[in-house]
Amino acid sequence: MEKQKVSVILPFRNEITTLKECLLSFVNQTYKNKEIILVDSDSNDGSAELAKEFAKKYAYIKYYNSPYQPGKWATSFYITAMQYATGEIIFMADGNVKVAEDYFKRNVNILQNEKVAGVIGKVKMWHTDNAISKYRSIIWGLRYNNIKKIEEEINQGMILPRMFSKKAYDAVGGFNPEAGWAIDTFLTKSFLKNEYKLIYDPESIWWHKWRDQPKQLLKYSVKFGKLNVDIDKYRTRQWIKNLYFLLPFPIIIASLFYYKFLALLILHPVPLFLNSVIIYIKANGMEHRKYAFAGPYLAYLQNVPYALGFLKGLLKI
């Protein structure tokens, strides 16, 4: 089984708060035939020094630097990292993820079937320190515990298999250089178009450290909204969602001329509150269940700037 090498490709920039624990989770895998390809992008927070220390300590860890280019798509850094990979199986990593110690062993076993291109593991929140992360832990728990729903999302090409076959990757043409921020969507859909199978294994656990500070979430939501415009402009559901969260702005303007429009502003969060009630009911028995009612707050915090970013991308501002 361990004749097949796993290549971890890990581009990063300024991930000092999570990089050490991230790397240790790969080092401590029960599956030993592996290499870790670190591609730095001019980190200046101590991440580069930490990565070099790991590369010096472990012969299977290689450190490279790819000069930082403001506004450059993430795709280019994954393509750069792939050029150094020598394994038959690839794990596509980020500096803010960590994996269970048996993750590689479980996934490699599944990938022995040549019709299977990749494996999707069950994601959990890395930290749950505040209302934002506790709410998100509920949402992710409900999502990834619903196997039928996850498999539907996979079949729609919406979820990236973190671990995939290099042979299948080459067969579909690899990462699309024009994919931009949608690198995962393009690769997943390429696998599906070529009639490969993607498997969801809920026992393969990995953790993701998401943005859980309000200022940080606002900033990145605008960025993601703008970067995802090439995908979102074809999604009717996303259009409806963006328009819903942009609606308060014309309502406020209209209320300057006719104050009764303010009633619409008061009613606007009602669907969000009702959705929180539904989530609360579904989350019966979950640790952070009461944080379901943080839903409306988080919805505005994330989706209003996302919709504004989408508008900026659409208008090419």
CATH domain fold name of the largest domain: Spore Coat Polysaccharide Biosynthesis Protein SpsA, Chain A
Shape: globular
SS summary, helix count? 15
Strand content: 15-25%
Overall mean confidence score, pLDDT: 92
Q: Which segments are poorly predicted (pLDDT under 50) over 5 or more consecutive residues?
A: none
Task: Give the biggest beta sheet.
Answer: 8 strands, mixed
Q: What is the CA–CA distance across the termini?
A: 52 Å
CATH superfamily of the largest domain: Spore Coat Polysaccharide Biosynthesis Protein SpsA, Chain A
Query: Would you identify the CATH architecture of the largest domain?
Result: Alpha-Beta Complex
Helix content: 40-55%
Describe this structure in words.
By secondary structure, this protein is of the alpha/beta class. The protein has 15 helices and 8 strands. The model has no long low-confidence stretch (mean pLDDT 92). It has 2 domains: 6-208, Spore Coat Polysaccharide Biosynthesis Protein SpsA, Chain A (Alpha-Beta Complex); 214-315, no CATH class. The protein is 50% helix and 16% strand. The chain starts with 5 loop residues before the first strand and ends with a helix. It has an 8-stranded mixed beta sheet, sandwiched between helices.
Keywords:
single chain; about 325 residues; alpha/beta; 2 domains; eight-stranded mixed beta sheet; 15 helices
